[in-house]
Each structure stands twice: as structure tokens, then as C-alpha cells.
Specification:
The complex is a heterodimer of chains A (393) and B (381). Chain A has 393 residues and is of the alpha+beta class. Chain A is built from 9 helices and 5 strands; from the N terminus they run E-E-E-E-E-H-H-H-H-H-H-H-H-H. In chain A, helix 3 runs parallel beside helix 8 (260-321). Classes of the chains: A alpha+beta (393), B mainly alpha (381).
Chain lengths: 393, 381
């Protein structure tokens, strides 16, 4: 359950329960992270990151720090750029908090205030606040999941930057500015897309990776499509819910005494729409990003393979010329080692990714179906009551 | 003659407008009515219904009767029909028209005075009606314009004779404000219908993409579940489509009908005002004639005096007549208004119950579909 505490004119404190699209297959309780509450001031969201740990590497067993969205991005980029983690699937960065839709509606409501009754205005304001709350819950969820993925990963959970993120009790933005510039990762992304063209053509030596590549490329484009369609569907659902709110508000001003029935019904459509979004749309969006991270791993490995093949060619050339053979041999060995390490780690990561994905889909599809059933049954009870009341009058 | 308020149940005539059939360029509708366990049926064109409205309007609107307004004419819809376009939108249009004609006719036969009208009888009984002329001017928009122009002219007038006039003033104000609210509501319901149709389309597309994703998925149980999810979403699409039809035919059309009906009610009130105005003008004319007579008495012109006396008698008669007309129309308008309010209350209640029942049915099927899906989701391993 979640509640909202209002301090002043703007939306502030929010306490959420644990609810995530991702699942933790690793039932290790040595490092537990959650985001128990968050603060929203104007454009900025401040998350309270709470850690409970039995690990001695941390200074305290139970502590909290305030963090901004940009801190999460810094952590993500730092992990992506760590050479040692090239063989791992780095959990996708949480998307930026997006309050544009409710904010726009709030603006429109303010403009139209003069044309509606006090009752109408209050009702619409309430519904808008519920929408703010839904966006809020969503953004807390994705940020929380990001950290929980890290904490449940045998290697990433031990990362130094991760520990700093969790523990450093001063403003992290000062430290962030000293870190590598984001330009670095822009460059990397540019190069990677060029890689995709070149490297897809490389002959794969390992059946497992050949299958994975085919599967991931196909699945990736399908899930991107599904995510976009789900977003559109959810948005339509919200529009229908909004219309019911308007209808309810307008009925208030009419002397039709049969309007309580419709008024009650209006609330339910809204809930259905936002639950559908949390379970289905967010699930798809999350895995779309996760699959991208898996693809990134494949490309890093393919790159390593290309490097290895190039180093072989260089070694042959060196042997022909009888020049710098030792250097070439060393380089070749290094490339081979790197490639083998990536392959071994990559295989592990991709296998566990499969398992994780299946379990997450199962959990969310079950929860979504259960919610749909629950809402529909509530609706039915509501409607039956209203109909009986109207018929008896 | 004033009609006694008869109990409406004794005039329980059911009408139905069904079986649209295209003969040549236009549609004919089978109009069925049942009275005292006997069923009669005739074929009627849309213009026949408009013609009926025109006849009734000419005869009864001066009495302060609320004549049910005819269904809207639609240039776009009619063109499609004439051109022979046989797609789903023209089928929708025909259905919309059929339903509107049925509601219109039901309202006419529900009215105790109108039911007695020979034109209504002829409409229901005669095998073939001569084609009505001049109905092309009776578009829905034209009708409302007519009402609004009249209301602009008389809006400045208020009668302050007795308390009962305060009743009329209050009721007119209520009608005007209710019309405004209904327009607002209608706009929102319209938006609901459109958004529901969008949701329909988006759900269908989403279902397809889920099916594709299911095909792509390499885990067998998950792949199966995703395909099942695609099927559920397909069923959802059907539900949304049916709900959009309910939104439209039950809610939106109810509101549209009553916006037009309230216009007709306003028309009655205005008619009463006009009658009052005629009476007042006659009184002032009479006054003037009396002043002329007085002047002539002084001027001693016996021939003109005779004429003046005749005119006075004439106008005294008119004043009496017009006062009687005003009293009569006041009684009629009041009676009509109360009958209208009763009918409106009944109508709204029955339609809202119908709408809620449609929502209920939809939710029942919702539960069924998702309960069928749940074991599939649980079977994922």
C-alpha cells in the first residue's frame, strides 16, 4: 500500500510498498535494498535509498541516503564502462521520471477552473493527483528494480561504485562531476551501431551463441513493437477513464438523481487502466531494455572475437616477416583469454537471463490477470447494486 | 377543446421501426404497431416521418403542445446511401436512423393528444403515403435555428401578472440551464465513444503484436501463454466495440434526443409568450380605438363615430378571444411540461438502467475471459 503526505502546495512524500516487474532469483539476504519513500519538488525527484546488509564491506548494517535520478545514471554508465564487466548483462538504466502528462492536464485544469463548479474542479483535481501518484509509483518501481538487480548479481553487487552509491552520505553530484564525462558513452554508442553492421556478419563458432544471436535479434524487434502497442492501448484506456471522470463531474451539475451509479463506476475504469500499465506495459518496456542490454553483451563478445581473429592475422604476418613475434604471440593470447572469459561469463549471464525473464513474465501475467478479475468483480457488484437501487425507486 | 389528462397506461401502444430495406435510392422501414393485441404494419420512408412532423407542428404547436422533434437529417449519411456505399459506416448510419425513427414515433404515440390526431392515424394505417413535400427544409440544424430565433425575440419579455407566471419563468430557466448541461454532457459522451473506438483499434493491434511475440518466444510454456494473452486481448476488442455501441446508442442518442426535445419545450414557452403579447397588443389597440372614439365624440362626426364604435366592438371581441387563448395555452403548456418532466424522468432512468446493464454484462464477460487465461499464466515454467 502507498500513501501520500502533502506538505505545502506541491506533491511531496510518498511511501510505497515493494512491487517490481523484475524478480530476484538469488535468494540471498546479505544485501537488501529498497526505496521506501521519495520526494517530488518541481522537476526533481529525490529517492530515499535504504540498505540493509550483513556484509562487512559496509560501514553500517542499516542506512539510508538521498539520491537523484542523475546519480542512478552515473552508476549505470560507470558499470557499462568498466572493462571487467564486459561479459555481464548490465541492468538497463531506469528511465527519467516523466510527469509531463499529469502536469499538462493540471495546467489545463487551472485554465478551465472558471468554467466549472467547485465540486467538478475538486473531483478533477483529485483524479489528477491520483495520476501523479501513479507516475510516481512507476518511477520509484523502475529505480528500485535497477538497484535490486545489482544487489542480486554475484559480481556487480561487489562493485566499488555501487557501494559508494549506496553508502556515500553526502551529495553524490560532486563526486559525479569528477567522473568520466558522459561524452565517453555517447561515443561508445556510436561506435557500437557501426559494429552491429560489421559484426553481425562474423561467423559464429559456438552453437549456443549462434542460437542466442538469432533469438535475441528477432525477439528484440518484436518486443519493441509490443511495448509501443501496449503504450498506445494503455493511453486509450486512460482517455476512456478520463472521459468517465468528466461525465461524472458534469452529472453533478444536473438535477438527474440517477447519477450516483455512474459516478461510482468512473473511479474503477481509472484503476484498471493504471494497473494494466504497471503489470503489462511496464513489464514489456523493462524487458525491451533488458534485451538491449543482452544484445550489448553479444556485441562486446563479437567484438572480442573480431579482435582475436585480427590478432591471429597479425601473428601470421609477424611470423612471415620474422619480426615482433613474441609481442604478437602475447597479444594473441590476451585476445583469446579475453574472448574466452567473455564467452564463459556471457553464457552464464544469458542462461540466467532466460530464467529471469520467464519467471518475471509469469509473475506479472498472473498478477495482471488476477487484478483484471478483481476489478471486474468489483465493478459487477457496484453495477448490480446501482441497478437494483434504480429499479426499486 | 381541452383534453382531460388520461392515464397513459390505457393507451399502451408499442411501436417498432424495423427491417430497413433499400428500394431504389432510399431506405424503407417496416413500421409495426400493436394496439389491443392486434399488430399492424406499414412501409414508410424517412421523408414520411418528416412529413408527419411538419403536419403535427402546423396544427399543434400553436396550442403549446410539445411536438417531438424529428430525427436529424444527415447529408453525408444520405449521400453514402444514395451512392450505394455498402460499408460498415453506412450500415451504422442506417441503424442509427432506424433507432432514431423508432424513438421518435414512440414519443408521438405516447402523447395522448397526438395519438388522436388524424394525420397520425393515417401515418399508421394507410398503405401508401404520398411523398411529403418541403421536408428538405426541415434539417435538424434548421429546426434549432428556428427555435433560437424565436427565443431571441421574446427573451426580453417577462410577464408579471400572477404567481403562476413566476412558475413559467422558473421552469423556462430550468429548461435553459438543463439544455446547457446536456450539451456539455453530450460532448463528453461523444468523446467517450471516440476514445472507446480508439481503444478498440489499439487493442486489436496490440493483440496481433502479442501473437508475434509469442511466436518468437523460445520458452514453450511462455510462448503458449503469450498466444493465449493475444486471444484474450482479441476478445477484449470485441467487448470494447460492443461497449462503444452501447455508449452511443444508449447514452449519446438519449442526450441528443433530449437536447432537441428541450428546444421544443422552449418553443412552447415562447408560443405562450407570443399569445400573451398578442393579447397585450390587442388591449393597447382597443385602448387606442377608445381614445379615437372619445376624440370623435368631441369633434361631433357621427359617421366616423359609428365606424369607431364598430371597431371597438371588434377589438373588444378580440381582446376577450386572445385572453381566452392565453389562458388556454397556459393550461396546455403547464400540463405538457409536467407530462414531459414525468416522461423525461422515466426515459432517463430506463436508459441509464439499460446502460448499466450493458456495462454489467461486459464486466461479466471480462471475468470469464481472464479467469480462462489465469491457469495458462500459472502454467508458465
Amino acid at each position: 500500500t502507498s500513501s501520500v503526505r502533502r506538505n505545502g502546495p506541491k506533491f511531496t512524500q510518498l511511501i510505497v510498498g515493494a512491487r517490481s516487474v523484475s524478480v530476484d532469483l538469488n535468494n540471498d539476504a546479505s544485501l537488501l535494498i529498497d526505496i521506501p519513500d521519495a520526494l517530488c519538488e518541481r522537476d526533481k525527484v529525490k529517492f530515499t535509498v535504504h540498505t540493509k546488509t550483513t556484509l562487512s564491506s559496509f560501514q553500517k548494517p542499516d542506512f539510508s541516503v538521498p539520491r537523484q535520478h542523475e546519480d542512478f545514471i552515473w552508476l549505470h554508465d560507470a558499470l557499462v564502462e568498466t572493462e571487467d564487466y564486459a561479459g555481464l548483462i548490465i541492468p538497463p538504466a531506469p528511465p527519467k521520471p516523466d510527469f509531463e502528462s499529469p502536469r499538462e492536464k493540471m495546467h489545463k485544469l487551472g485554465e478551465g477552473e472558471a468554467t466549472m463548479t467547485k465540486e467538478e474542479y475538486t473531483k478533477m483535481k483529485q483524479e489528477l493527483e491520483a495520476e501523479y501518484l501513479a507516475v510516481f509509483k512507476k518511477t520509484v518501481q523502475v529505480h528500485e528494480v535497477f538497484l535490486q538487480r545489482l544487489s542480486s548479481h554475484p559480481i556487480l553487487s561487489k562493485d566499488r561504485n555501487f557501494q559508494i552509491f549506496l553508502e556515500y552520505d553526502q551529495d553524490l553530484s560532486v563526486r559525479r562531476k569528477n567522473a568520466k564525462e558522459t561524452f565517453g558513452s555517447f561515443f561508445k554508442n556510436m561506435v557500437k551501431s557501426a559494429d552491429e553492421v560489421i559484426i553481425s556478419g562474423i561467423k559464429e563458432v559456438d552453437d549456443f551463441f549462434e542460437q542466442e544471436k538469432t533469438f535475441l535479434l528477432d525477439y528484440s524487434s518484436k518486443i519493441k513493437d509490443s511495448t509501443a502497442r501496449a503504450e498506445k492501448m494503455t493511453r486509450s484506456h486512460k482517455n476512456v477513464a478520463d472521459d468517465y471522470i468528466h461525465i461524472s463531474a458534469t452529472l453533478n451539475s444536473l438535477s438527474v438523481d440517477d447519477n450516483t451509479a455512474l459516478k461510482k463506476y468512473t473511479n474503477v475504469e481509472g484503476r484498471v487502466a493504471s494497473d494494466e500499465e504497471l503489470k503489462l506495459t511496464e513489464l514489456l518496456r523493462y524487458y525491451m531494455l533488458d534485451i538491449q542490454a543482452a544484445k550489448d553483451l553479444l556485441y562486446r563478445r563479437a567484438r572480442a572475437l573480431a579482435d582475436y581473429e585480427n590478432s591471429n592475422k597479425a601473428l601470421d604476418k609477424a611470423r612471415l616477416k620474422s619480426k615482433d613475434i613474441t609481442q604478437a604471440e602475447e597479444h594473441q593470447q590476451q585476445c583469446l583469454q579475453k574472448f574466452d572469459k567473455l564467452s564463459e561469463s556471457g553464457k552464464r549471464e544469458l542462461t540466467s537471463f532466460k530464467g529471469r525473464r520467464v519467471v518475471a513474465f509469469r509473475k506479472n501475467l498472473i498478477e495482471m490477470a488476477e487484478l483484471e478479475i478483481k476489478h471486474a468483480k468489483n465493478n459487477m457488484a457496484l453495477l448490480q447494486g446501482c441497478i437494483e437501487l434504480l429499479k426499486s425507486n | 377543446q381541452l383534453e382531460e389528462e388520461k392515464d397513459e397506461d390505457s393507451f399502451d401502444m408499442e411501436v417498432a421501426v424495423t427491417n430497413p430495406e433499400k428500394i431504389g435510392k432510399e431506405y424503407f422501414f417496416l413500421t409495426i404497431f400493436e394496439l389491443m393485441n392486434r399488430t399492424f404494419s406499414v412501409w414508410r420512408r424517412f421523408s414520411d416521418f418528416l412529413g408527419l412532423y411538419e403536419k403535427l407542428s402546423v396544427k399543434h404547436s400553436l396550442n403549446g403542445c410539445i411536438i417531438p422533434p424529428p430525427p436529424e437529417k444527415s447529408v453525408v449519411g444520405m449521400t453514402k446511401v444514395k451512392v450505394g456505399k455498402d460499408d460498415s459506416s453506412s450500415a451504422d448510419f442506417v441503424e442509427r436512423r432506424r433507432a432514431a425513427l423508432e424513438r421518435y414515433l414512440q414519443r408521438v404515440v405516447c402523447h395522448p393528444s397526438l395519438l388522436q390526431d388524424p394525420d397520425v392515424r393515417e401515418f399508421l394505417e394507410r398503405d401508401e403515403l404520398p411523398r411529403a413535400v418541403g421536408t428538405h427544409t426541415l434539417s435538424g440544424a434548421g429546426f434549432l435555428k428556428m427555435i433560437n430565433r424565436a427565443s431571441d425575440a421574446v427573451s426580453k419579455m417577462t410577464i408579471k401578472i400572477s404567481d403562476s407566471d413566476a412558475w413559467f419563468d422558473n421552469k423556462l430557466q430550468e429548461v435553459e440551464s438543463e439544455e446547457l448541461q446536456l450539451r456539455k454532457l453530450h460532448a463528453v459522451v461523444d468523446s467517450l465513444v471516440n476514445h472507446r473506438k480508439e481503444l478498440c483499434g489499439n487493442t486489436a493491434v496490440f493483440a496481433k503484436s502479442m501473437a508475434m511475440l509469442g511466436n518468437s518466444e523460445d520458452n514453450t510454456a511462455l510462448s503458449r501463454a503469450l498466444s493465449q494473452l493475444a486471444e484474450v486481448e482479441d476478445k477484449m476488442e470485441t467487448l470494447h466495440q460492443e461497449q462503444a455501441a452501447s455508449d452511443f446508442f444508449i447514452l449519446a442518442e438519449l442526450l441528443a434526443d433530449y437536447i432537441r426535445l428541450l428546444g421544443a419545450v422552449r418553443g412552447c414557452f415562447e408560443q405562450r409568450m407570443k399569445t400573451w403579447q398578442r393579447w397585450q397588443e390587442a388591449q393597447s389597440t382597443l385602448q387606442k380605438k377608445r381614445e379615437v372614439e372619445a376624440k370623435l365624440l368631441w369633434a361631433n362626426k357621427p359617421d366616423k363615430l359609428q365606424q369607431a364604435k364598430e371597431e371597438i366592438t371588434e377589438w373588444e371581441g378580440k381582446v376577450t378571444q386572445y385572453e381566452r387563448d392565453f389562458d388556454r395555452i397556459s393550461v396546455t403548456v403547464r400540463k405538457e411540461f409536467l407530462r414531459f418532466e414525468k416522461q423525461k424522468s422515466k426515459d432517463f432512468k430506463s436508459q441509464i438502467v439499460k446502460y448499466l446493464e450493458s456495462l454489467l454484462q461486459s464486466q461479466q464477460r471480462h471475468v470469464k475471459f481472464w479467469e480462462a487465461f489465469l491457469p495458462e499464466a500459472k502454467a508458465i515454467a
